[in-house]
UniProtKB/TrEMBL annotation:
The lineage of its organism: Bacteria, Bacillati, Cyanobacteriota, Cyanophyceae, Spirulinales. It comes from Spirulina subsalsa FACHB-351. It holds the Pfam family MPAB_Lcp_cat. Residues 60-237 form the ER-bound oxygenase mpaB/mpaB'/Rubber oxygenase catalytic domain. This is DUF2236 domain-containing protein. It comes from the Bacteria.
Amino acid sequence: MPLTQRFNRLEFIQQLDPIQDHAQIYHILAGYEFPWDINKALELALMKTFCVPSISKLLDKTGEFHHHGQKRYDDTGLIVSRMVKYGYLVGQGKAALERMNKIHQHFPIKNDDYLYVLSGFIYEPIRWIERFGWRPLCEREKLAMYYFWCAVGQEMGIKDIPESYALFEQYNQNYEQQYFYYCDANARVGESTVQIFLHWFPAMFRPILRPLIYAMLEESMLEAFGLPSPPAYQRSFVSNTLKFRGYLLSYFPPRQRPDFYLDRQHLSYPGGHSLKDVGPVGMLEELNRERPEQSN
């Protein structure tokens, strides 16, 4: 496809309504325009939630990240990806949302914590793309991401969702300032998460990659995890590498096939999976007894 068509999807999105068409816009962004960037930004958004003691203590107590970290990572990606690919109100997307709600009902999660996680899913991808994306997001795209996750939040029963993009962003920032601080549970869950990332690579490269992971984290995150602050040259290397990747992609032709996380190979499920496989290992029998789930 000629490079002149690189911005065709952006031009199409600019004709859509960010409120009425938010699911369609987000589908295009996550599947075609920025699949890798959004996936990485959501990884960062989830890792930021582990800087909050009330969240990390719950995860630390369940032991899921310590004993089944890769499965926990894959399950989150598969649920989110189903909702983004198919929509959250019908078919597989609705089934994924219902599965997520069933899982969450077994844990005492505070509404404020739900709100923060939801806000991270909106603003971390936007911030990442603004720094490293091959093009900036337009206002319609940012608003569509806000309306998408607000609608998902409503389906989850989350209360008091801020009524504007700016107010929710301010909530996100205020929450981090108030609740990011060190505790031992943060450190344990954070280390288990770093181990997930490292085990994607051969053992010989892991000592080199560990400090580069730290270099991607904000100082507030490093403090909350009790991790050392990386030298400036490592931060600069990581940042410049990601920016250069975005610059190169701007010269690539537009993606012809979608790249949703759901459609990739998953380490936890080499032989494939269904929604009946998704969830904490010790809870699967109960979850599947409560309600049969739609398979993949």
